[in-house]
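for the recovery benchmark. tokens below, seq after
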């Protein structure tokens, strides 16, 4: 007998850990999960931002907690997972959203900057997934891992952009997602990725200022950039039973930009 569609998307009784969850895309994702019924744990570096984000979600009736930590540091990741397990009992949904970028020409790209981007954008995803998998998902034989890639990981730079480390790290996220999905499917763990296009955020503010929102929108077949709702449906599909037969996939949410690139 089939399950009613509302029940498939219902996250009541589920717990979610969202890295980089205090603002931007991470906060949008946390809001979607909470509105669907999940208890949400936010983590990012700044306690003030987390406190503000938690208050915003709690005002919507979402059960929200937070932990301030630097996801680029292995010891901090271990602490986050320990505390999340103590405070929530288990983690059903892990959203690896924390990320950074750095612009510099490839021939002059600083090693320090390369390491910073790689450590946060891909190493932290590995370490967080490994820790949550071992502590919660594998023993319970269930879990949903959602990684934040980017359409920048699906193609190279245009000549006017200097994003070597960021694009490389996001391409790594795509194949990390495929590979982990293949290995952990036997534990009933779904691993998927979202690949956002251009959304307004602190990370993209420089691009919006330099290029302009209208110009960026004109590059998309839908003639728009992402807004505060555009990741909600996609993340809910990957986080809920509605997506239980989907794993190892990367879904662009970009107004069609990647379709043009692929074509």
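predicted aa per position
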């Amino acid at each position: 007998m089939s399950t009613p569609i509302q029940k498939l998307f219902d996250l009541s009784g589920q717990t979610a850990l969202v890295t980089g969850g205090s603002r931007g895309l991470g906060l949008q994702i946390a809001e979607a999960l909470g509105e669907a019924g999940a208890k949400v744990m936010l983590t990012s570096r700044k306690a003030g931002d987390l406190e503000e984000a938690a208050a915003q979600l709690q005002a919507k009736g979402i059960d929200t907690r937070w932990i301030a930590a630097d996801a680029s540091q292995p010891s901090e990741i271990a602490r986050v997972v320990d505390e999340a397990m103590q405070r929530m009992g288990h983690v059903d949904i892990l959203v690896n959203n924390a990320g950074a970028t750095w612009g510099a020409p490839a021939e002059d790209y600083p090693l320090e900057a390369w390491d910073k981007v790689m450590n946060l954008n891909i190493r932290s995803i590995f370490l967080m997934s490994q820790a949550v998998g071992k502590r919660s998902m594998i023993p319970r034989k269930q879990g949903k891992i959602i990684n934040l890639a980017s359409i920048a990981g699906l193609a190279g730079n245009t000549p006017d952009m200097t994003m070597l480390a960021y694009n490389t790290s996001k391409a790594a996220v795509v194949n990390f997602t495929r590979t982990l999905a293949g290995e952990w499917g036997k534990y009933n763990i779904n691993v998927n990725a979202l690949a956002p296009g251009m959304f307004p955020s602190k990370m993209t503010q420089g691009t919006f200022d330099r290029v302009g929102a209208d110009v960026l929108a004109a590059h998309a077949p839908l003639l728009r950039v992402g807004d505060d709702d555009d990741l909600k449906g996609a993340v809910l599909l990957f986080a809920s039973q509605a997506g239980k037969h989907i794993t190892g996939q990367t879904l662009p949410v970009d107004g069609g930009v990647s379709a043009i690139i692929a074509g």
